[in-house]
Amino acid sequence: RAICNEPYVTGTRYTRSLGAACAKTLGLLKEAAALELQEDATTVLHILRGGLNFNLREALTDAYGWNDQASAFVSAQRARSSSNPQDWVITESAYKKLHLRKVDNIIFGDVVATGTSLRYALLQLGQFAKSNDCEIHSLTFFTIGSTYSHAILDEIDAEYRAHFRNYRGSNVVYIEGIFETATNESKVSIKVDGTDLLRTNSILAP
Fold first, then answer.
1. How far apart are CA 32 and CA 18, in angstroms?
2. In angstroms, rounded to a whole number, what is the distance separating the alpha carbons of residues 145 and 152?
3. Tell me: the pLDDT tens digits for 107-133?
4. Can you say how many angstroms the Cα of residue 64 is from the centroid of all Cα atoms in its chain?
5. What is the C-alpha to C-alpha distance for residues 129 and 135, in angstroms, rounded to an integer?
6. Cβ-based neighbours of 15, under 8 Å, separated by 6 or more
7. How far is the C-alpha of 175 from the C-alpha of 111, rounded, in Å?
8. What burial class does residue 140 get, using C-beta atoms within 10 Å of its C-beta: 0-12 exposed, 13-18 middle, 19+ buried?
9. 204 CB contacts (<8 Å, ≥6 apart)?
10. Measuring CA to CA, which residue among 126, 131, 125, 108 is closest to residue 162?
11. How many CA atoms lie within 13 A of 56 on its CB side?
């Protein structure tokens, strides 16, 4: 709540608060039997750079006492390709350090406005898994984000189900709300189209 409602939650306080929220949520998901993970079959995917803020390696340790969860990294920086505020492309994607176990559960997080980076990262992950004979078992995504988060996960989920025989499904965990992304039609005077997340028409936590 503090991250999404107090503008002065920044720096280390921001990342520690976000990691603590993810750790608490991981614990509650396990308690409710809504998420089944194994330490030696879980990889944290870091979508660079925003995904680093979620501190999910530490969150898994805090929630489950783990130490040996793996990490993978993919850079995905978006930019506009034209004057159209909805026209986004990936311009910075040179860095990748992907490693998966033979069967792997993927935990990752990012702030999502249009989902351009999210889609790119998951397509790259799927291609790597296929070319290296790995099976992705599940996706669990933490976000402060828009409806594009679950729309893209639906799309990727369908693709993964078609390719990975052990695939069980995906989860999207929205922190505080499912927000609207600002567009040129949004009725607010101060905004950045395709970037700002708005409470207008959003689904907010009580």
1. 21
2. 12
3. 999 988 888 888 888 998 999 999 999
4. 20
5. 6
6. 52, 53, 55
7. 10
8. buried
9. 176, 177
10. 126
11. 27
Nearest to 145 by CA among 53, 16, 32: 53
Q: What is the DSSP letter of 32?
A: T
- Structure-token match 């311009």, residue found: 91
Angle formed by the axes of helices 116-131 and 148-163, to 10°?
A: 10
Q: What is the pTM of this model?
A: 0.88
Structure token digits, residue 75 = 């850079």
At residue 150, the 3 state secondary structure works out as helix
pLDDT band at 83 (very low <50, low <70, confident <90, very high): low
| 29-33: average pLDDT | 93
Q: What angle do CA 196, 118, 145 make, to 5 degrees?
A: 35
Cβ(176)–Cβ(18) under 8 Å?
Answer: no
DSSP 182: P
Q: How far, in Å, CA of 62 to CA of 27, rounded?
A: 9
- Cα-flanking dihedrals φ and ψ of residue 101, to 5°? -75, 175
